[in-house]
Design goal:
By secondary structure, the protein is mainly β. It contains 1 helix and 33 strands. Helices cover about 5% and strands about 45% of the residues.
């Protein structure tokens, strides 16, 4: 079901549908403009009360005629929407979907269901092109590598597939007894693939063959009996050609991050640790020119000058875990696990906030029309 702005506002006041709060109720920092607008929302999953949380993430498919939004649902359908929120068609799957999706160079979309079945979908024709069985599910997103793609599963396996579903290679890591449901995605830099497994192993592989280049164990003690104490990777690794931070200067480094843990910088050539920061994050830092921004799991946003090696500022944005930031229209956008969307300028000043129902565990996806926000209550919102 698609809801436009007027109908959404009316139904919220009436209490008939779940969606964002009316704009008049949005909490906004003093002096900021109330200009975060819900363009539309859809109920992707047709979620019933007490149903499992929804974690899938959308992708965009660009054709000669239009752009589609493709997302898997827990209702066992892949939904294909236009940019204005109208459902064009849907494709039936064998199981619910919690993974991200990836649009391949040939226009197909790959994603997986919770039983580890990997699918390629043709969103224009509305059919399954091929299907493969993995050893486990994955809750991250597929990553493009040329015309192929990479998958990192929750049992610490890494796969490279062709667009036609041919397995190029696979790499098996050591499993972990206890891990979080969400997991990071691998990173491609040149001819190498880097990944961080939930047992704390960081690895580098040859992209063409999957041969191991190096492996480093980053957790001295990864054992935990409860999730609240578990150090787990949620953020996808990032590559930085140069980094000056915390009094250390490094070149060609990987930033590997642990939720409820810390951030470590590794040398890309051998995996030797260069530095560490005691910051717990859920999503990777971003850098805009000479400034690196990162948001932690305690609600703080940090800005570092990575040339001078200094912390510019640290500001409390929320009282709970933050996801982001991403950069869109020269603003920083963050979300938290209480359903709040934040828009800030690059000085860290909150310009506007918007409250949505449910928790937000995925990064927003940028589109030509706005940002796509997915909540665990089964909704997908287009905002700007």
């Amino acid at each position: 079901m698609r809801v436009n702005g007027f109908t959404l506002l009316y139904s919220l006041v009436a209490g008939l549908l779940f969606a964002s709060l009316p704009l008049s109720q949005v909490a906004v920092a003093s002096g900021a403009n109330t200009n975060i607008e819900v363009l539309w929302s859809v109920d992707v999953d047709q979620r019933r009360p007490n149903s499992p949380a929804a974690y899938s993430a959308p992708t965009l498919v660009h054709t000669d005629k239009q752009t589609f939004i493709v997302i898997g649902g827990r209702d066992r359908w892949v939904h294909i929407y236009s940019l204005d929120g109208w459902e064009e068609r849907r494709v039936a799957l064998q199981g619910p979907v919690d993974s991200g999706a990836l649009a391949l160079s040939n226009g197909w979309v790959v994603l997986a269901d919770t039983a580890g079945r990997l699918y390629a979908i043709d969103p224009v024709q509305g059919n399954i092109v091929w299907k493969r069985q993995l050893t486990a599910t994955f809750s991250g997103s597929p990553i493009a590598i040329g015309d192929d793609f990479l998958i990192q599963t929750t049992d610490n396996r890494l796969y490279r597939f062709s667009a036609q579903g041919e397995k190029r290679w696979s790499f098996s890591g050591q499993g972990s007894v206890l891990s979080m449901y969400l997991n990071p995605s691998p990173l491609v830099v040149g001819h190498e693939v880097y990944a961080l497994f939930n047992n704390g192993d960081a690895i580098a592989l040859k992209a063409i063959s999957g041969d191991l280049l190096w492996k480093r164990q980053l957790l001295l003690n990864s054992e935990s009996i409860v999730l609240s104490e578990l150090k787990a990777p949620l953020a996808t690794p990032i590559f930085m050609p140069a980094l000056h931070i915390a009094g250390e200067q490094s070149e060609n480094v990987l930033l590997m991050s642990f939720f409820q843990g810390e951030i470590l910088a590794l040398n890309t050539q051998d995996g030797v640790q260069q530095l560490n920061l005691p910051i717990s994050i859920k999503s990777a830092p971003i850098h805009v020119e000479n400034t690196m921004f990162m948001a932690d799991s305690h609600g703080f946003l940090y800005a570092y000058d990575i040339v001078q090696g200094t912390q510019l500022w640290k500001k409390r944005i929320s009282n709970t875990e933050l996801t982001g930031p991403i950069l869109w229209k020269n603003a920083l956008w963050l979300t938290d696990n209480q359903g709040t969307v934040f828009r800030l300028n690059q000085a860290g000043e909150v310009q506007a906030t918007l409250n949505l129902e449910g928790s937000i565990n995925r990064l927003p996806l940028t589109t030509p029309e706005g940002l796509l926000i997915r909540t665990d209550r089964g909704a997908l919102y287009m905002i700007q």
